[in-house]
Amino acid sequence: MCGIIGYIGPKSVVPVLIEGLKKLEYRGYDSAGIAVVDKGKVQVRRVKGKIIELEESLRKSPLGGTYGLGHTRWATHGRPSEENAHPHRDCTGQLVIVHNGIIENYLALKLRLRDEGHVFRTETDTEVIAHLIEKYFQGSLEEAMRAAIAELEGAFAVSAISAKDRNKIVAAKLGPPVVVGLGDGEYLLSSDVNPIICHTQNVAFLEDGEMAVIGPAGVTFSDFKGNPVQKKIERIAWNPMMIEKRGFKHFMLKEIFEQPEVVRDTLLGRTSLDSGKVLLDEIGISPQVLRRVRKVVLLACGTSYHAGLVGKYFLESLAQVPVDVEYASEFRYRDFILDKETLGIVISQSGETADTLAALRASKDKCAAVLAVTNSVSSSIAREAHGVLYTHAGPEIGVAATKTFTAQMTALVLIALYLAQVKGKMDDRASLEFIEEFQRIPHKMEKILRQAKTIEDLALNFVAFSHFLYLGRWVNYPVALEGALKLKEISYIHAEAYPGGEMKHGPIALIDENMPTMAIIPKDRVYDKMLSNISEIKARLGYVLAVAQENDPQIRERVDEVIPVPSAHPLLMPFLTIVPLQLFAYYIAAKRGADVDQPRNLAKSVTVE
Ligand code: AGP
Fold this sequence. Notes:
The chain is of the alpha/beta class. It is 34% helix and 22% strand. Strand 18, helix 13 and strand 19 form a beta-alpha-beta unit.
């Protein structure tokens, strides 16, 4: 996720902006920049890369000024580059903006503005905002901002300064956060409180549809129509380190809690609730090519492989195509058979996993096309695939994948619906109904997250166990695999996952009082079969925890503990059943004193084989 910082006050602005950007680094970024108004002119400095390179550039060629903006960019549209780095300028270069979010209608705006004579310099969606403000500027920066944002569709936390309306910073919020810091004769704005708190603990959080005009004498708040808004000034008691994790003890826990926002962000702009259509032109693989697809092969490693296994059910049920899901590390060495009617999909949050990249290279010329699902813009896998669908999970700092897993599943739902649409396997009404169901998932995830304390209390009873069995069936079998991986990789407890139907073929021999079972048992087509598994385990004195639907009255008599989740479309239940398993693994690992964010022996991206 991008980071924004702005400052106006008596201090030299450049060090304040640089230190502020450093406190936003945890959000992850691939480029950075600042803009100041120095001696009446806007000066911009940007780098592709890290803030330390920006500092080096400023050391060589210093900037002055008492107010300005800074930005760390996590690329969503346009590759990481100096030109695509924020701040972005209007035609004159004397009005600059920084932005966090996604402008869905930027292409139409860009074409219209270009026809009106505006000259664009970047590949980004953001730049259209600078030219729109320029178009409407008649002396008041905030009035021009109001007129500009009225034309935007999508999500934006945007801030602007101009040499033509000096000594003010204007900000507007619809979606991503904007926090205003109110110090003693100095004022700041940022994407979160972390860069602010070392200057002042008095903050105001903009709500969607609100603007702030920040000057040396203070801050005025209004709505997008210009009506004054009274804001509550809050006092932040957190220490800076806590804030990097926004109060969470570990990045992994923060990222588990970010999942509803991540699903919303990955969905944003890619479905139409008017038509029921999925809008995936961005993937760069034509409907003509997709229409010829008769089979899909998913290639990935680790958690991404588990996301692929869930995606198999989406694709089979919605697009009605046969699907193979392969460990990339195995596939690349096989005498695999592909043809020009097969679509390859490689899944990799880092976009740099060596085995997945190798499988992509080995297959890309032997199939119809290879589509990458990745969280990393311009990563090797993104660049080498024929097409890309980016997840908008923001950077995942914890080595154990959590929010990127649900983001990948979101992307795979979109791909399955899109393929179904292109191949005429699903009418718009059915597609709309499914999309509407899907739009309710983030809210249901939030309901589960609100019971985190209950899950923590339950998890603490299992800190001393050395083994765990995870069971699921149908679309929740991959969730059992992912839940077991989470426990293994962060708490170092041995955990195995099996499809429930396999219990009689061996694993049931494991059951005794030292081998607890986590059963995933929503009320779907295999519910009764899972109940049978549970009965067989209980008959052998096995302890059973169940992730089950809150509206299931009978499950409580059948198991030892229930973790309730809301009900949803059976195919979408993995978005809900995975959350308690992530929390369960996290709380056990944290209690065991494991290094949750950096588990032993693991790397965030396995770029070597
Ligand atoms: C999952 O928690 C691990 N971090 C690991 O299995 C990871 O999913 C795997 O290495 C694949 O990484 P990628 O998605 O970046 O390709």
